[in-house]
Amino acid sequence: MTDPMSESEAEASLMAESESELESKSEMESGVESIVEAAVEPIVETAEPAGEKTAEKTAEMADKTAEPIAQATAEPRPRPAPARPADRGTPLGATPIGLTVTQALALPALAGARIVAGHAGHGRVVERVNVMEVPDILPWVKPKELLLTTGYPLRHSPSPLTELIGDLDRAGLSAIAIKPHRYLGDLPPELLAAADALGFPVIELPEGVAFDDILTDVLSDILDRQSAVLARADHVHRTLAQIALEGGGLAELTAELAHILGGPVLVTTPDGRVLAECGADTVCHLPCFDAAPADADHRLRTEAEQPGLTAHHGAQHALVPIVAGRVDHGRLVAFAGRRAFDAADVAALERAATVAALAVVKQLAVAAVEDKYRADFLRDLLTGRLDDPQSAAAHAATLGWDIGPGRAPAGPGRIPAGAAYTAGSGSARTAGAAHASTSARAGEAAEPRRLVVLVAELDPGQSVLPASQHALRPARERFAAAWQTVIAARDRTNPVAGFNQEVVVVLKTGEDPDPLVRSLIAEVSGTGGGGRRTFSTGVSRRVASVADLPAAYEEARRAVRMGRRLNGPGSVAHFDALGVYRLLSLVPDPDELRDFARQTLKGLAADGDPDAEDLRTTLEVLLDTNLNVAEAARRLHFHYNTLRYRIGKIERLVGPFMERPDLRLDLSVALRILHMRGL
Questions:
Q1: Which of 611, 644, 642 is CA-nearest to residue 627?
Q2: What average pLDDT does the chain have?
Q3: Mean pLDDT lowest among 153-167, 374-388, 559-573, 634-648
Q4: Which residue of 379, 432, 484, 648 lies most exposed, with the fewest beta carbons within 10 A?
């Protein structure tokens, strides 16, 4: 330690030394003052003697301040403690644009400086520089700062420096650089041990280094890096904007962005459906995607993926939301390819998300107009308002739909996922013409074509995507868009439109439509993740001509309502499999059905009575086995005599159903009414 002296003598000596050094130093480089003013918060407290040559800006402020040292060291206004960065990913707003501690030590102003403790933290990022000249520095520090000090504020008791190391690490600082010999002597071993334990770099500065040179070099390097990042982001923005101005869509934007970033790029809906992609097949096995069959599109698990940089099993990706008009339109995701992403890549992706939002909004605007005309035509067709079926088929062809007479295709062809989002746009006509040509060439080998109408309705009382700061498009719009995307990927010539509460699809099919229907439903519903809502589906019987479509539409509507009543949310009902429920669905008054069930079943119709429910089950099994008592007893795991006893008990309640076929018919219908929900 240096010779002790009175505090006033030390302060006077230190002031004189600082003024002498400032007078003898040549004028700083042009622009240093603006760099310090823009990137470093002015520290009025540095008016206290520092023992070092300070930045010119700080010295000028100190000269103009005629306040006593006690005022300069007054207790500052505390700042809230900074939050530690999450392990899950790096928020985009906090994307590091700086230099590591190792890179900072390579600057000329830090020549001769070395890390004496906390070597494990040499990769910490420095984004700003601060100077410690007051003991209570914590309220004035910020995350990712390099803190410079001579130790003068703690010259009488260096031991608080050991505690300070832990406080600075919790505050998120990058490192502390100390010039110890003048006021502290050797650094305490406890300080070095604490820094090693935390991986918090402690840098020892040479005696001759000046703080203003460190400020200048470090901040100049940071600003140069920021300028390079902004320049690259601007270049990416201009390139992608030019593609958009030339009429390019999401497919062209993702292809160009994949070329720029050197890795796969995807655009998805808010719930993770892939709208456009380039190179997605190389990353779809990662855990950020839902598992899917080889012939199905993979869904990005947007409900589990946060904006920012994230790593999955060594694969790094960056995700940014696509927002326009405060409406969430999806996600833009890029995966690192040949190298890890840096700040310039993330900034470029943020700019690209803006261009993607413009492309999405433009596409939605065009699709909204076309979809309105398509939906109006399909509604008129299915409600029987069009008199001439041949004219209707011809008009449908102008919209890219094929519902005229012909042959069923041998199998539905898939269209690349990148083109799926253009459902409802003019490109559907080209795809429709190509499909019609292919079908015509294979016409002789295919079976006669039939049409079925599919109606899908969202089930009521469900939540949507998790709450966020951005609004979502209405659920009905997103549901219709999902069906349009899936249908377009199979066969663009199938009519599909969203009505007020339902989505209607006219499918061309051969013998059995059920496999095709099940496949489409599976693609629309996916795994149910990402906030997808359940829906019920009704399918009509197959019809041969356009003139039969209105009747098929009514069948599909009745099937979806009856399927939900029988099986609850998420049901799939074919009209020709409803049986007697087809007749029951025609009864407009639910009270009439309830009264019939109660009057027929009598005591067996009691709700919440375990004995009545048990006897109803026995009665159903008997009717299903055509009154074969031995078979019914086997299915119910009863003794034969036990079942005979139950039969007698049931007949005392409802009548001699074993002898009266008409009563058995009434009982069977009444039991099916009780299976219907919502009565």
A1: 644
A2: 75
A3: 153-167
A4: 648
Residues 106-128 as b/e (b if ≥16 CB within 10 A, e otherwise) read ebebbeebebbbbeebbebbbbb
Strand pairing partners for 320?
332
Q: Cβ(181)–Cβ(151) under 8 Å?
A: no
Eight-class DSSP state of 656: -
Query: CA 69, CA 542: separation in Å to the nearest integer?
Result: 93
- Angstrom distance (rounded) from CA 155 to CA 210: 19
Question: What span, in angstroms and rounded, lies between the C-alpha atoms of 92 and 213?
Answer: 31
pTM of the model: 0.52
Using CA atoms, how far residue 13 sits from 3, 73, 395, 520, in Å, is 13, 19, 95, 84
Nearest to 671 by CA among 600, 607, 569: 600
The residue length of the chain stands at 679
Is 243 exposed, middle or buried (CB count within 10 Å of its CB: 0-12, 13-18, 19+)?
middle
In this structure, are residues 561 and 678 in contact, taking their beta carbons and an 8 Å threshold? no
The tokens describing 404, both together, are: 């005229």
Of the two residues 65 and 1, the one the predictor is more confident about is 1
pLDDT for 492-540, tens place per residue?
A: 899 999 888 899 999 988 778 888 999 898 888 865 554 578 899 999 9
Contact 269, 483 (CB under 8 A): no
Query: In terms of Cα–Cα distance, which of 141, 103, 116 is closest to 201?
Result: 116
Name which of 50, 76, 80, 190 is nearest 136 in CA terms.
76
Mind spelling out the 3-state secondary structure of 390-439? HHHHHHHHHCCCCCCCCECCCCCCCCCHHHHHHCCCCHHHHHHHHHHHHH
Interval 434-472: pLDDT, tens: 444 444 444 444 456 789 999 999 888 765 444 455 556
Laid out side by side, the sheet with 114-117 consists of 114-117, 202-204, 175-178, 145-149, 128-132
Alpha-carbon span 668 to 581, nearest angstrom = 12
CB neighbours (10 Å) of residue 316? 18
Residues of the chain with pLDDT > 70, as a percent, come to 74
Burial class of residue 166 (count of CB atoms within 10 Å of its CB; 0-12, 13-18, 19+): middle
- Of 258-267, 376-385, 427-436, 445-454, least confident by mean pLDDT is 427-436
Side-chain half-sphere CA neighbours of 234 within 13 A: 6
CA 488 → CA 111, 258, 415, distances in Å?
64, 25, 7
A 10 A CB-CB count for 341 gives 22
Q: Tell me, what DSSP letter sits at residue 4?
A: P
